[in-house]
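Dear colleagues,

For the upcoming journal club I promised to circulate an example of a predicted protein-ligand complex. I picked one with flavin-adenine dinucleotide because it came up in last month's discussion. The inputs are reproduced below in full, followed by the predicted structure.
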Amino acid sequence: MTMGQTAISSMQTEVERKANVNLDTCMQCGCCTGGCSGIEAMDFSPRQIIQLIKMDEWAVLLNSRTIWMCVSCHICEDRCPARIKISSVMDALRAIAYSQPTAEPNKQIHFHNLFLGQVKTFGRTHEGLLMMSYSLKAKTPLPPMRLIIDYLRRLRVDMKPPHMLGKAYRFTIKKAQEGGKDHGA
Amino acid sequence: MEMLNQEVLIIGGGIAGMQAAIDIGASGRKVVIAEKEKTLGGHVKDYTCLFPDLSNGTALVAQKVAKVEAFPNITVQLETEVSDLERVNGGFKASLTKNSASETQNFGAVVIAGGYGNFDGTKYGEYGYGRYPGVITGIEFEQNMGEILKRPVKTAVFIKCVGARDRSKGMPYCSKVCCMYTAKQAKELKNAHPDASVYVTYMDIRANFKNGEEFVRGVMEEERVRYIRGRVGKIFPANGCLTVRMEDTLKGVPQEIEADLIVLATAMVPVNSTNNLVMKVGGKVDDNGFITSLPLAESTNPMEVAKGVYYAGACGFPCDVRESLNQGSAAAAGVLSYLQVNGRP
Ligand SMILES: Cc1cc2nc3c(=O)[nH]c(=O)nc-3n(C[C@H](O)[C@H](O)[C@H](O)COP(=O)(O)OP(=O)(O)OC[C@H]3O[C@@H](n4cnc5c(N)ncnc54)[C@H](O)[C@@H]3O)c2cc1C
Ligand code: SF4
Ligand code: SF4
């Protein structure tokens, strides 16, 4: 695709502000990709993500798998010769993608919401409930019966009723919600 | 008024220091070269082949040593380290330390040619230098070339910019010669093992020397050394080999290469001890730790560090042999005109 290009990228401005980085220090060396733990599941390498931000490719970035497949292991960031906080860049992109009203909610966002919702309600996730609610929400089929039986028999998935919260925890969650805007579901 | 001391001290008997000594010695003035090692020649005495013309570094050093020794007015003090330097009465007083015994001597001018150090490869834990015997540094390749070329190598990977252009390691500068020496070493390896796969991983190719571009292109086009763009992320042992993991940034995909020899093109780094001497006599070092000359508009000679003090060679910034020789001659010219003008009552 060929397109007109300006040297100003609104995406770059936004990400740099959120993550407190200067992406013009990137030398496109690929050292981040070389150490990346999630690369096999990504559609763009971390290096390409940096370039896409600089080229203001909003649509490509917000629909890319990479930003959700980053497992925040920080290896990229540890080795980046330009000292770019790449994990923070990925966080910023996820926050932007999440807050885009127009962005079509993808599976990752559904998962994110359900996961955080459970943490807030129960203080931890409940695997059984999470699995079922995710299947319903994202319209993905439940795991095959054979696996479900296996999960239950070998206690791979906890089927005890969810854990109930103490007062102190509810208070903490309330405070966190007031403070953390970007990630609050 | 008494005549100033006219003797010249040269700190470091590498290629740059020897060239300065030869040019000053030719004027008939007395020169002392203090060299902390057992022999003259610095790093270059170990290089059997120099880029870009593949001439012999050891032979070049031998020729310079013979010239130095032919001058009765040049004294070479081996295994002698200049441990202190200060200004006295318009000249300099130096402490020359040999076998932990120090003696002081006065000089009229000083050339600092203390050369460079080599980046410590163990600072990149992810490359496993010091842990895996298959991982060596560029300077080790030069120093043990005979032995290394005899190793049974099927696949070799050269990794450039190790300890250079890396702000997270506090090394932001480009070490300038490693692109060239890597091409040279890759060529040597390929000549010794024509059937081996030889890779060079790079971020950029900097061949800004006379005939440098042609040299590197030749290594790719004629020797068929394969250049892959990307900085290596990690090295780990697998299948009895070492696996190099990186992104081929031109293809845009992660890449793994199984290699039996990995050469880290380690950067040339400044030497603290020579820097301390420079600062004692009013000279400056830059943010990277290399000696800086006076601002050009304030100096009479490009190698001038402070009044009566000049530098030459890699102690100022990474440079090749030809540049070191040029700077040695330039520093000599600075010393001679300085003594001519300031040496009179
Ligand atoms: C791996 C590698 C390969 C290279 N290959 C090439 C090549 O093929 N072609 C090329 O043109 N260039 C090459 N270079 C560059 C070359 O090594 C340098 O240009 C050259 O060595 C610089 O010479 P120098 O005299 O400034 O420093 P050095 O060679 O470092 O000599 C400095 C001398 O000073 C002495 N010294 C230091 N401090 C003191 C002190 N306080 N008192 C007394 N003595 C002291 C040291 O012992 C040393 O002998 C290569 C560099 C590297 C790292
Ligand atoms: S490691 Fe850093 S400099 Fe290199 S491509 Fe990744 S973000 Fe850019
Ligand atoms: S000369 Fe080449 S290998 Fe050395 S630091 Fe510069 S770009 Fe990297």
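Two points we might discuss: Residues 135 and 141 of chain A are 6 Å apart (CA to CA). DSSP finds eleven helices and no strands in chain A.

See you all on Thursday,
B. R.
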